């Protein structure tokens, strides 16, 4: 028994933990949980906990249903929103088949497999997300949600619900070992942003799943609702998850070059070129819901076109300002991701696209210095700037032809994800919307 496992067993005993929740994520990015008493924990470490995989989205067909959840002791944390007199802990799990082999349907394994490929090339992948979400009044209707406040970007209000909410949420996140860099009110009423401090991509994906749970728990405790829906209001910009990222070789930032433009190395430039080239085919994963494409429209403060820039917030990839004498700060920012994606799958395909650019030494196209939204279609075409997919259907059709995404996700996840997304778009396409009733019913 390794030291981490021993530490967990000892901690559970010393802290008198009543239940341990074993967490894992389905293919669509929804958190699953099974609770066990401390008496079953040692067996869970050695043998795992069996469950019916056919009942979990995308995990298994009926005739291959048996699966095993094995807790990762390095992810052990107490849940801060539980009563301290009745402590409950959680651990993330890796999913295996009964013979002990990894399940190819496990999103966590998809990311681990991609990170292993990066490690074979000498790279460690680090990410730092800026996570946006909305707080809604708890008594509002799902069909007519109301923001919990009327504040705007960076507003400071003495009695603002959002401010008190963020204080409690950040305290709970830090109690779970999740470091927060800063937080603030975003531009739309009720919209918040909390930025998590840099971590390796697997730890960060786990942190994002914990983050969503903490945010929803705190919101509920304060009589509100929290939503990571990409764009719940037509009149306001949506919620993104701008993600800063870099590759390290040991302790050295592979994206840094003191003599390079914007202090970016050739490795970083190839990585950005890979993101730009493969952006359309990975969009169904980084922006996986029909509502995601309501955010990626012109003028909504989200990228619509495939380009890069240094101080250009209309670009898909932005090069943040370099901090003098701090090589570790050299990084790139991908602005398309939204906060409702499956972080394991999203980080996996983003890394795959970037590594493809490095392997092929893709040339980086010229920087987009203008506001890309303000350019005409002709001007963008002349500059070689393409579009991101306009809706989920278009994104699915592009992904279907992608060898990169198929190889990264694996056959099982790739096929299930496409089937599910097709069904989602078909259901969405059949709906008659209030917009159609308002605009067309009176005149047709």
UniProtKB/TrEMBL annotation:
Keywords: ATP-binding, Ligase, Magnesium, Metal-binding, Nucleotide-binding
Domain of life: Bacteria
Coiled coil: none
Cofactor note: Binds 2 Mg(2+) ions per subunit.
Alphabetized InterPro entries for the sequence: Gln_synt_N (IPR008147), Gln_synt_N_sf (IPR036651), Gln_synth/guanido_kin_cat_dom (IPR014746), Gln_synth_cat_dom (IPR008146), Gln_synth_I (IPR004809)
Pfam families: Gln-synt_C (PF00120), Gln-synt_N (PF03951)
Binding residues annotated for Mg(2+), in chain numbering: 130, 132, 186, 193, 242, 333
Binding site for L-glutamate: 295, 301, 313, 335
Cofactor(s) demanded: Mg(2+)
SUPFAM superfamilies the record matches: Glutamine synthetase, N-terminal domain, Glutamine synthetase/guanido kinase
GO terms assigned for molecular function: ATP binding; glutamine synthetase activity; metal ion binding
Domain GS catalytic: 107-444
Binding site for ATP: 181, 244-246, 313
Keyword Ligase carried by entry: yes
Family in the record: Belongs to the glutamine synthetase family.
Identification of the protein by name: Type I glutamate--ammonia ligase
Native source species: Parenemella sanctibonifatiensis
Gene this chain is encoded by: glnA
């Amino acid at each position: 028994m390794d030291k981490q496992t021993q530490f967990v067993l000892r901690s559970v005993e010393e802290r008198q933990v009543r239940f341990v929740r074993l967490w894992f994520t389905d293919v669509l990015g929804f958190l699953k949980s099974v609770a066990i008493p401390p008496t079953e924990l040692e067996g869970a470490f050695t043998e795992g906990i069996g469950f019916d995989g056919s009942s979990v989205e995308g995990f298994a067909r009926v005739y291959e249903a048996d699966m095993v959840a094995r807790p990762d002791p390095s992810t052990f944390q107490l849940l801060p929103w539980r009563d301290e007199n009745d402590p409950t802990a959680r651990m993330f799990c890796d999913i295996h088949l009964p013979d002990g082999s990894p399940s190819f349907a496990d999103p966590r394994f998809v990311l681990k497999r991609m990170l292993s490929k990066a490690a074979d090339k000498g790279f460690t992948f680090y990410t730092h997300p800026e996570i946006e979400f909305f707080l809604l009044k708890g008594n509002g209707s799902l069909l007519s949600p109301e923001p919990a406040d009327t504040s705007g970007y960076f507003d400071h209000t003495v009695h603002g619900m959002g401010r008190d909410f963020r204080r409690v949420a950040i305290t709970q996140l830090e109690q779970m070992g999740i470091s927060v860099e800063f937080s603030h009110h975003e531009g739309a009423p009720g919209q918040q942003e909390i930025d998590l401090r840099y971590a390796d991509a697997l730890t960060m994906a786990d942190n994002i799943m914990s983050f969503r749970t903490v945010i929803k728990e705190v919101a509920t405790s304060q009589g509100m609702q929290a939503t990571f829906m990409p764009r719940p209001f037509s009149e306001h910009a949506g919620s993104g998850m701008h993600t800063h990222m870099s590759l390290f070789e040991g302790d050295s930032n592979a994206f840094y070059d003191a003599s390079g433009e914007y202090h970016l190395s050739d490795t970083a430039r190839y990585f950005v070129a890979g993101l730009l080239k493969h952006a359309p085919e990975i969009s169904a994963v980084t922006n996986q819901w029909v509502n995601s494409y309501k955010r990626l429209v012109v003028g909504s403060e989200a990228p619509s076109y495939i380009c890069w820039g240094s101080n250009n917030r209309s670009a898909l990839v932005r090069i943040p300002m370099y901090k003098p004498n701090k090589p570790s700060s050299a990084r790139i920012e991908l602005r398309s991701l939204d906060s409702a994606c499956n972080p394991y799958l999203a980080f996996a395909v983003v890394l795959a696209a970037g590594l493809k650019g490095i392997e092929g030494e893709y040339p980086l196209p010229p920087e987009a210095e203008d506001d890309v939204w303000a350019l005409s279609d002709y001007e963008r075409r002349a500059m070689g700037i393409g579009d991101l997919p306009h809706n989920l259907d278009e994104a699915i059709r592009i992904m279907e032809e992608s060898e990169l995404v198929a190889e990264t996700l694996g056959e099982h996840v790739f096929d299930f994800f496409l089937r599910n997304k097709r069904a989602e778009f078909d259901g969405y396409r059949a709906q008659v919307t209030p917009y159609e009733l308002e605009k067309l019913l009176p005149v047709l």
